[in-house]
Amino acid sequence: MATRRSRTWAGAVLAVALGAAAGVVAWRDPLLLPGTHTVSVYAIQDSISQQIDHEPGLLGRALGMCDADTYYVRDGDTKMCIVLSGPLGEVQASRSGGTVTVPAGDAASLRAMAAQDTGSPEPTTRLALRAGGRPVAIVAVADIVDGKAVTAHALD
After folding, report:
1. Report field, pTM of the whole predicted structure over 0.70
2. E strands along 97-133, which residues?
3. Total tally of structural domains belonging to the chain
4. Residues 40, 11 share a domain
5. Is 37 helix (H, G, I), strand (E, B) or coil?
6. Same domain as 99, residue 50
7. Which residue of 1, 6, 80, 96 lies most exposed, with the fewest beta carbons within 10 A?
């Protein structure tokens, strides 16, 4: 009887642990879950964003921040500290492997959001898609074609 009870407890603890892990993944990056999800769109302020040679400290990496208002992102081997302006709006997006895709129906919305950004003196050239409190992809405005799905590399 005691063996059966301990297996029941072990199963319950395992189920709670797996549920908690899934919850953390969904909170940290909902695009890792199957399906289409709502993401926020921000303009990247290129004049004060920069590529860096080193990663921020352990706490900065854990929080995804370079400092209080600068996000740390990695796109392959490229490390950047980016400053965001917005939010400009929301679109739908999905992730498959290393690619984030915004459906064709939202392409015109992305272009309009880039045009309406007034948080920076220069025209917006890149947009950041943000989910779960952190940037998940960077979209070049020049690559947005109305009526075609927009694809971008998923950030690490």
Report:
1. yes
2. 99-102, 126-131
3. 2
4. no
5. strand
6. yes
7. 1
> One-letter amino acid identity for 103?
P
Q: What pLDDT, on the 0 to 100 scale, is given for residue 4? A: 57
User: Distance between alpha carbon 27 and the CA centroid of its chain, in Å?
Assistant: 11
CA of residue 145 relative to chain centroid, distance: 21
Give the Cα-Cα-Cα angle 20, 155, 29 (nearest 5 degrees).
Answer: 20
- Rounded-to-integer distance, Cα 39 and Cα 131, Å: 5
Please compute the mean of the pLDDT values over residues 75-99 and round it to a whole number. Answer: 92
| Percentage with pLDDT > 90 across the chain | 47
Four-point Cα dihedral 127, 106, 151, 90, nearest 10: 40
* Residues 40, 98 share a domain: yes
- Note the pLDDT tens digit of each residue in 112-131: 999 987 766 788 999 999 99
Q: Looking at the DSSP assignment, which residues form a beta bridge with residue 41? A: 89, 129
Element (H, E) at 15: helix 2-28
**Structural domain of 129:** 34-153
pLDDT band, residue 20 (cuts 50/70/90): very low
**What are the tokens at 136?**
């998940």
88 and 123 fall within a common domain: yes
Q: Which residue has the higher pLDDT, 21 or 93?
A: 93
